[in-house]
Amino acid sequence: MNFKRADFPDGFLFGAATAAYQIEGHKFGGAGSTHWDTFAATPGNVIRAEDGAVACDHYHRYASDLDLLKDAGMDAYRFSTSWARVMPDGRTINAQGLDFYDRLTDAILERGLKPFQTLYHWELPSALADQGGWMNRDTVMRFGDYVDAITDKIGSRMASIATINEPWCVSYLSHFLGHHAPGLRDIRATARAMHHINLAHGVGMSRLRGKGIDNCGIVLNFEYAQPATDSPADIKAAATQDTLYNRWFIEAVTKGTYPAEALDGLAPHMPDAWQDDMAEISQPIDFLGVNYYTRNTIAADPDAAWPHQKSVAGPLEKTQMGWEIYPDGLHHFLTRAARDYVGDLPIYVTENGMAWDDKVENGAVYDPARTQFVSDHFLAAKRAIADGANVQGFFYWSLLDNYEWAFGYEKRFGMIHVDFETLQRTPKASYHALKSAIARD
Ligand code: FCB
Question: What is the pTM of this model?
Answer without folding.
Answer: 0.98
